[in-house]
Amino acid sequence: MSELALPKIDNSILNRKSEIVKNLSKLTDKENVLSEADELRPYETDALSVYTQTPLAVVLPENTDEVSEILKYCYSENIKVVPRGAGTGLSGGALPLQDAILLGLGKFNKILEIDYKNKCVVTQPGVTNLGITHAVQHKGFYYAPDPSSQLACSIGGNVAENSGGVHSLKYGTTTNNILGVQMVMMDGTICRFGGKSFDQEGYDLMGLICGSEGLLGVVTEVTVKILKTPDVVRAALIGFPSIKEGGDAASEIISSGIVPAGMEIMDKALIEATDNFSKAGYPRDAELLLIVELDGTESEVNELIRKVEAICKKNNCSSLKLSNSEKERLSFWAGRKAAFPACGAMAPDYYCMDGSIPRGKLAEALLEIKKLSEKYELPVANCFHAGDGNLHPLIMFDGNDKEQLRKTEEFGSEILKTCVRLGGVITGEHGVGIEKRELMCEMFNDNDIQQQLSIKKSLDEKNLLNPGKVYPILRKCAEEGRVHVHKNKDKFPDLPRF
Amino acid sequence: MSTKIKINSQIFQDSNNVYYPKDEVEVSDLIRELYKQDSPTEIIGNNSKSFIGNKTQSANTTSLSKISGIIDYRPEELYIKVKACTPINEIEKVLSENSQELAFEPIDFGYIKDGKSNKGTIAGYLSCNYAGSRRFKVGSVRDHVLGFKGVNGKGDIIKSGGTVVKNVTGYDLSKLIAGSFGTLVALTEITLKVLPKKDSSKTVIIYPNNFEQIYDLFNKLSSSSSEISGAVFIPEHSNDKEFSAKKNNVFKFNDLESKVSFVAFRVEGDKISIEEKINNLKKELELNNSDISILDVYQSEPFWEKINNLEVFEKTEHNLIRMVIPPGNGSKLCKYLENNHNYFIDWCGSLFWIEVNSKKEEKIKDLKKMANDFGGYLTVIKTSSEYDYGEPIFTVDKVRLMISEKVKQSFDPKRILNPGKMYRGV
Q: Does the pLDDT value for residue A486 go beyond 50?
């Protein structure tokens, strides 16, 4: 991708590398401090792998006190710190900096307490999202947010990005499903927001931390709510002969008062790609595939399915299949969950976009993306969390071809332009990270950004924690009260302001 | 305390010198001027909940009540965008016309204030973040705010969020504004998530024999896959004749024996699934038909209104406490309260409304310690006329206070907006 602007490198820190490594080794087991080139390589990137950067050193502390001591040391020595969970983020939020230590929370991998009486789990941040559900499912409970990377992504990373998933329409995102966090601030102060009870009094600092992309503190413990697994879960697989009819059906389901547990849309390109890849048995003649999942008690689900069927038929669906067993339901999802690897198998590279739009604009957005795909002569496959209007177009390209790379970026820019024009936002769930930070000025005006920077400054006055992420670097709007586009340096130079 | 100032502008002032800006530009002009003059202001809406919190240390008063009206309601998109001081009643009315609602069930604090219904405005409601009985199922007010616009303590108009549910663009300031008691921004615009209204509801009443049974019921109810949307415990209060009579009067329903202690839980949905859920729960809770009574929809709806209006504490002249704890510690608290205070329990065992007699004010300290020990918190929602503020009405620890001061500083460096409303220095 384009050359990336990062915060100015502090050479004095680079020159002091061996001393810093030595001092860090006094604060945790010396085995937990990595500084050799081959040891650092696995940490050079997160899941936005087009950007790589070698960190000064990697530190893998084992407990909260160690995190506090490490941050305190870095604070006093003006050393930048980039926190990292499982490294599955798609927006480059955990991209290292040359003069920063990378603080990996991978050793925080234990569930500390399962409390069925209070319907919560207290866990360290390195535990995977799915690991929490696995720990409680034998008693019929689960943790609701389910990002597609849930097998690998950590709950600490989920808090940093406020991750959602296919069930977030009905059950909310991370912020709606956590009760408390323990966090260490950049100066080493250990703090606790919330606990096992609802809605802490005073400022909702937990709400502020959730989705702050590792800029305000390092989360060292999370208390999550667990829910009882519904009695009955059924899915419907519905094919439509046109994008418009399928999009309209999805909108009508929501406006009729149904809140599905999950509702996903895939376009023809993705139906074919995933069906080839995972043999999911999708209707290959359909232009658009809708997966609707409904949960509740038996009569509740039956009634909802009846309504969904009627709406889809009214909108001329070409096929409609209902899951009659758990195995069949999972097979309906198998293709959708393989969307990314399926695209990976079709082209050397793919670029995953993440915008949100009002639900009613789905059909319009899909048609627009189709036109753009023809204009740029690049294949695109689309999967959408239709319930909440979150789009994930996957642009397929060859990264070795400079011209294709340029076109991909322009295509991505036009997709986000479309989202903004339709009344949506530039990131639904992947976060801003480094990927979309220059677009923040398109979403927010100077006052809005200044307010956010001012919060950052109040909690991290030296700007040492994950600097260079989320807020614009190229554009000076944030600092100087104006928008300034650097030629060829901006990934999305022609988005409108609103 | 600062002195009252006269600002040079067209902003309307009434005979009590209360400012009434008519739009966000006037709010911005006013606050910018107050910022320049270092002169703080109290921020009020319709005054329905202004009795909650400390008295602010301000010379000026700004009412946002003229900033009212629905801007954009999209039933099919499940959101409504309103001007900040739109009355809750007005919002609920238009939502109801489309079979939608504010799922967090706004509490009507008018009854405890002066015995008259007054739900106030959405800005006031968001500033307190006190959700009603459905909270444990659907989340609090903060979980239903998609975005806002407002004016910070420097007079800058700022916004955060949007109209879509999935949005991780920048810090989630909507959460921070919820429960901030007007100390961070003067709100001018709010976008809320709305949800479909359930077709019908029924309420099942159980008459338990002891405290252990109450929490056993709460635990089984919250562990069931047959979801409930409300669960309260109303104790007998036999040692306070006056309160007992009031309680019996409030809960006078054909199918409810209100003179004894009872647990009530609500099931919502379509008629068939309500029956199915009640039957499932009867089995899971091992209930016989003779042990329970059922309120049909015509009794169920007013029953929950009375709960959410806090009608048993109507016009209370004592101190009213709101305590939230993890439900696992509820039965211990229950035992303590039984002989000491009038109370009832909501949120399936998590939320306690406790009336502390004005002559027993020192007991608030004990309750606060208990809230803390149990992993929760308490707020003195209404104070008696003799309350001396010896015990702060909010609970905060040192570290959170330090961070709160920093956050306040970032929005309102000169402490112009509602200073001291929550804590000293914030």
A: no
Q: What is the DSSP track for A396-463?
A: EE-TT-HHHHHHHHHHHHHHHHHHHHTT-BS-SSS--TTTSGGGHHHHS-HHHHHHHHHHHHHH-TT-
CA of A159: which chain B residue's CA is closest?
Answer: B168
Residue type, A493: P
Overall domain count for chain A: 3
Asked if residue B299 and residue B250 are part of one domain, the reply reads: yes
Alpha-carbon distance B161 to nearest alpha carbon in chain A (angstroms): 9
Q: For an interface test with B, which of A177, A199, A457 has the most B Cβ atoms less than 10 Å from its Cβ?
A: A199
pLDDT at A319 over 70: yes
pLDDT at residue A435, as a whole number:
82
User: Six-digit token pair at B159?
Assistant: 């916004």
Relative orientation angle of helices A64-77 and A17-27, to the nearest 10 degrees: 150
Among candidate residues B284, B285, B280, B306, the one with its CA nearest the CA of residue B295:
B306
Q: Which domain holds residue B293?
A: 200-311
How many domains does one find in chain B? 3
Does any domain span residue A374? yes
Q: Is B398 on the interface with A (CB under 8 A)?
A: no
A183-219 tens-digit pLDDT: 999 999 999 999 999 998 999 999 999 999 999 999 9
A4 falls within a domain: no
Both tokens assigned to B152: 């910070």
Nearest in space to B187 (alpha carbons), one of B64, B58, B20, B59:
B64
Q: Which of B311, B332, B349 is the last residue of a domain?
A: B311
Considering the domain architecture, whether residues A276 and A390 belong to the same structural domain is answered as yes
pLDDT band at A3, cuts 50/70/90?
Answer: low
Which residues in chain A touch residue B422, judged by CB atoms under 8 angstroms apart? Answer: 202
Give me the residue from A204, A425, A448 closest to B164, CB to CB. Answer: A425
Decide if pLDDT at A378 tops 60. yes
Nearest chain B residue (CA) to A301: B273
pLDDT of residue B3: 57
Q: Are residues A243 and A337 located together in one domain of the fold?
A: yes
Q: For residues A153 and A490, what is the distance between their CA atoms, to the nearest angstrom?
A: 29
Torsion of CA B16, B17, B18, B21, to 10 degrees: 140
Q: Residue A286 CA to chain centroid, in angstroms?
A: 29
* DSSP-derived secondary structure letter, A348: S
Of A198, A210, A444, the CB nearest to B172: A210
What are A432's two structure tokens? 């801003």
Structural domain including A61 reads: 11-104
Q: Is the pLDDT of residue A352 over 50?
A: yes
The tokens describing B93, both together, are: 């009315």
Minimal Cβ distance to B169: which of A259, A443, A459: A443
Closest partner residue to B168 among A204, A431, A451, by Cβ?
A: A431
> Cβ separation of A172 and B143 shorter than 8 Å?
yes
CB B5 within 8 A of CB B61: no
Q: What is the pLDDT of residue A489?
A: 34
Note the pLDDT of residue A494.
36
- Rounded to the nearest 5°, which phi and psi values hold at B47? 65, 20
d(CA A413, CA A407): 10
Please list, in sequence order, all residues whose beta carbon lies within 8 angstroms of the beta carbon of residue A266, skipping any fewer than 6 positions away: A274, A282, A288, A289, A291, A335, A336, A339, A381, A382, A383, A384
The pLDDT, as a whole number, for residue B364 is 94
CB–CB contact B269 A210 (8 Å):
no
Within-domain flag for B192: yes
Please report which confidence band the pLDDT of residue A484 belongs to, taking 50, 70 and 90 as the band edges.
very low
